[in-house]
């Protein structure tokens, strides 16, 4: 079977909606209909993905970039509209990659698993704090995940304001942490069912603009670390706690650029004050912001190179964060 066909065989309603859509009205070539998404790089703006009697018009593409790196288009994650209901979705097509990273003494193999993401989407159906979606199968057996976008913005985009860090810490962070508790509970739910999120990052939490609820997105990464099967998720949760507490990442360059810190603070830092996962990131934030209480700072130090004791479960982190909230200075 050819990977794509013409639009001639489309149902009448689908063909009409395709013709009338702003995307296809502006095109100088006819749309192609893809029933096989294996070669996703050939699928372009204005094409149609036909899967299990559903028809999705590709309207644009999502972008992603590691922090400090220009955003890159992800051709395997198009934005699309259902040509019957005219509902907007995000599609994730099958894309597999593998890479290694370091976690202290361990080398961790990370890889994309569309199958694992499909199982998580089924598991979290109807649960808060998780992006919702379903999985369809194309004519070649590829998994097409149909995701409902969260109407809102990334967590790391909404916590920044003109307020000082002190004002942020005392007046805004307790509310943010209370909402983040739901995200921690969600990862605990995955772990109890034998799943890892696999790619916990601050830009993988979206905040619903209407409800204020926090939602995890992007479940297709997994990792192989049989010695400590959930360790990478736990350390990445630590990264988010550190980022939220500091309202940013603090490396030596940020410290030197901050007129309230500079050389004196930098000289006070030793190797044990930095992150085990991201080794030039400061974890001992109490040295930067002395008003951070021990109850919170001690949580962060579990993720440092100087730690003797590490968290073994999300429940342990939850217990400590809840206790820190009860003892919040005010």
UniProtKB/TrEMBL annotation:
Q: Which residues form the Protein kinase domain?
A: 56-330
> Could you cite one Gene Ontology molecular function of this protein?
ATP binding
**Where does the source fall among the domains of life?**
Bacteria
Protein name listed in UniProt: Protein kinase domain-containing protein
| Gene source species | Desulfobulbus propionicus (strain ATCC 33891 / DSM 2032 / VKM B-1956 / 1pr3)
